[in-house]
Amino acid sequence: MSMEEKRRLWFLYAVRQLSWRLSKKGDHEYIVRTTVDEKTYRTLFRILLMDAKPKRWFDGRVYWYYEPGDGRKYWAMTRREEESCIINRCKIWEKQNDGMGVG
Questions:
Q1: What is the CA radius of gyration of the chain?
Q2: How far apart are CA 66 and CA 82, in angstroms?
Q3: pLDDT tens per residue, range 40-77
Q4: Alpha-carbon span 86 to 18, nearest angstrom
Q5: How far apart are CA 4 and CA 69, in angstroms?
Q6: How far is CA 75 from CA 2, 50, 65, 82, 85, in A?
Q7: Cα 85 from Cα 88, distance rounded (Å)
């Protein structure tokens, strides 16, 4: 089993153990760093960035999205671990027409 596959499986296991909050708009969920075990948060964040793919929004911003195979995509608002306080997720079909580019 490759390291990428091991990371993916750990990520999938870990995200199922967490309590995700629904956003005010109801279009995605998120976890807050201060409500999650710090080691778990850091590991999720690192895997997300290690295996994520960049997507450019129509306004020019680039975010890194990770799709581990559970029908959702995950992203953080920064690539700097020390600045990160939230990890987001949504079902892949929910975010297709939200201003995000396709590649």
A1: 13
A2: 19
A3: 999 999 999 999 999 888 888 888 899 999 999 999 98
A4: 13
A5: 13
A6: 23, 12, 5, 15, 12
A7: 10
